[in-house]
Amino acid sequence: MDLLLAEPALLAGLVFLLGLLVGSFLNVVIHRLPRMLETEWQAQCAELRGEPPQEAARYNLATPRSACPACGHAITALENIPILSWLWLRGRCSACGTAISARYPLVELLTGLLSAAVAWKWGASLETAGALLLVWALIALAFIDLDTTLLPDSLTLPLIWLGLLFNLGGHFASLSDAVVGAVAGYLALWSVYWLFKLVTGKEGMGYGDFKLLAAIGAWLGWQLLPVTILLSSVVGAAVGIALIVFVKHDRRVPIPFGPYLAGGGLVALFFGADLTRAYLAQL
Question: Could you read off the pLDDT of 6-64 as tens digits, one per residue?
Fold first, then answer.
């Protein structure tokens, strides 16, 4: 521990390697959790219809082993080394040659880099442990929302409670600021949702967005909610306009807001206090 305290670069390097491993697991979460929830919902619907329960093969975050979706080839340990295996395989399945999405190593690299940045900023401390949990959860939620336009309660709700529990020690915010942050985060987007619905008769966002911003407020406190909302809204609006103008994105197809909220939360985690002070200094 003394060595890690004295050598922040060593700590950041070790946490980078840990982040790569966690990123590999997050790829599993991003892929499997929505399918697990869909299976659960289908089983509940069948039960409500009075249909007899169907026996299905076990499918969770651990079972079955990861396999190529094209040929079913089971991924070996050597083929599952973060980033290196994808490069060694040249982005293709070793059995059938089907292309493996570059997103898998990119998620691993993103997780590793952000994890290292956390360790560099906070060193060997409880703040690093808490920030790592928040960063990993935000990455998983961002990509799940990008794929499915869903932000699962099984991730957002525990994230809210973990943020409040973590701030019992006042690590990122006082407990009172964290509680107000969770409430204000939820109500801010809830109000926008209902205002938009009253004006247009349409739903502008999902309830998962409310809970995600509540979780960010619970971790970082209400003071960093404005910068989170501002960054996510500006970037989200710019990307949405670009998609409509340049890619001819159908306006009726919803654009997930979760990735922008997660990105805004990450910026607020690292730079929110500095950005807020810089803004207030201009007033």
Answer: 678 899 999 999 999 999 999 999 999 999 999 888 888 888 888 887 777 788 888 88
pLDDT in tens, 131-157: 999 999 999 999 999 999 999 999 999
Please state the pTM of the whole predicted model. 0.93
Q: Which whole-number Å values give the CA distances from 19 to 84, 135, 200, 281, in the listed order?
A: 14, 10, 43, 36
Which tokens in the block code for residue 224? 């960093």
Neighbours of 54 (CB within 10 A): 8
Nearby residues of 264 by Cβ (< 8 Å), 6 or more positions away: 216, 227, 228, 229, 230, 231, 232, 235
Burial 139-178 (b: 16+ CB within 10 A, else e): bbbbbbbeebbbbbeebbeebbebbbebbeeebbbebebb
Peptide bond into 256 cis (omega under 30): no
Distance set, CA 163 to CA 137, 166, 174, 177, 216 (Å) = 12, 5, 11, 11, 8
